[in-house]
Amino acid sequence: MSGLMCSRILQKAASCTLSFSCSASLQWMQIGGRSTAGAVGGRSLSTRQNMDFQLNQIQVNSILQANEQAVSIPWFDGRSLSAVRKFESNHLAANTPNEDRHSAATCLQTPGTLFGVFDGHGGWACAQAVSERLLSYVAIAMMSLRSLEELEWLMEQGRPVPAVLQWYKHRGDVSYQKSASFYREQLRVFWQELLDHGEHSDGMSPAEAMDYAFKRLDTDISLEAQVPLSSDLLKSTAIQVAFTGCTACVAHLDLEGIHVANAGDCRAVLGVQEDDGSWTALPLSRDHNAQNPEELQRVRARHPPSETATVVSEDRLLGVLMPLRAFGDVSFKWSRELQSSVLQSLESGVDLDSLNMYHHTPPNYLTPPYLDAAPEVLYHKLRPQDRFLILGSDGLWDEMGSQQAVQLVGEHLSGVHLQAPVSDQRLKLGQMQDLLQRRRARATRPTDLNAATHLIRHALGTSDRGQLCPERLAAMLALPEELARMYRDDVTATVVYLNSDLSKPQKS
Hints:
By secondary structure, this protein is an alpha+beta fold. It has helices at residues 3-13, 57-65, 125-142, 145-157, 180-197, 206-224, 232-243, 293-301, 308-311, 336-344, 394-397, 402-414, 429-443, 451-461, 470-478, 481-487; strands at 17-18, 50-51, 69-72, 84-92, 100-107, 113-121, 165-167, 245-253, 257-263, 267-273, 279-283, 312-313, 316-317, 327-328, 376-381, 386-392, 491-498. Helices cover 36% and strands 18% of the residues. Strands 5, 6, 7, 8, 9, 14 and 15 form a seven-stranded antiparallel beta sheet that branches. Helix 2 packs across helix 15 and helix 4 (145-157) crosses helix 5 (180-197). Residues 1-15 and 36-49 have low confidence and may be disordered. This is PPM-type phosphatase domain-containing protein.
């Protein structure tokens, strides 16, 4: 966002306030990816002018449910059983256009299903490219050399090549149509190199494949921005993908278990149903940001002691970027000389105006690279009590904790709303009223059939007292485009329901 545009937004925001009757106030939030001048976390707006939001319930539901997706997965596809019963996804934009993306696909040449959530920053280009390409890289890396040899032979003969993935696309999904053939060519180069190396004759394990695919795709994104391409459009796209960035959280599920590869601050959480019917959140990823002490130590250890105070300052990488791992973001990876050389060598057909925001090297840029896309891969062996997996961008987790998300989905799934006993302490009348309102709200039949929508509704509409507030939700959804990003982030959620019966011990 340019400084001039930000100034205009702040001037408009300074004369506005949001008002509703749920004992909660909306506050400015810091912009999640790269910092933007003037966005000050926790600062309330002026009361000089009220903004009148009049969205009714039908309009609210229409906005929330516009991007819903629900897909049932066959329990047997002719080759193997599926660990996934169905999944539900949704996203809600704050940025224009939305910088979040999500993907889902069944592996056709190996067992398993893949899901990914991608949170872009500095623009949507990198998230778009990664969402289209990363799952294919993972799937190719898991294939045996014999299968890859067959793919290559078919390509050489000009014959139809069998699909590697069965994609589950939503009608609203966008794609880089002009780059599709180029991406296929790059994917072929990837499997040719796997064949040349001759390792992993049976294919990589899911953990190895995910680690290799993350690193390789990030390398490809970097190289594609440096080399000549066949058209100005391809070159412009490659530059925008490389200079913007995105975090990624990808899950591979098969009958044995769940592998989660995470780079950045998206998150994966498993919903576990205990013997007493209660729900427990089991984290399957760790956030890579300044709130993670181990991650902070990892990043600082890669640079001289003289940079300890500047590598991460004000909880941001070089004072700018919140996630400490990401795809793209070459302004945190390339040397100053390489950045300058690539940008100066662009042909006249490339839209330089669209790249102006990327010309600024971060402060204290002394010993690059400061950033990488190496994922942290965690594994969980499936158990009968494991019921669903939630993947979400940080826009979801900024608004609710993992346990709250699992509780919401679990109660949505089971229809049973467990209520904690009332404390022995004497409650004041106001406190008792709040408690009764929260219990009444939890016992009400949910508006949304889609669990991902249910999460987003509660993420944006829950008041300070923990109850769903229709007025707050309507106000959040009615925010003008130029103000929405000051109050919330893009929100994406995918809920994957597991075939728990397949994890139960078989009786003799």
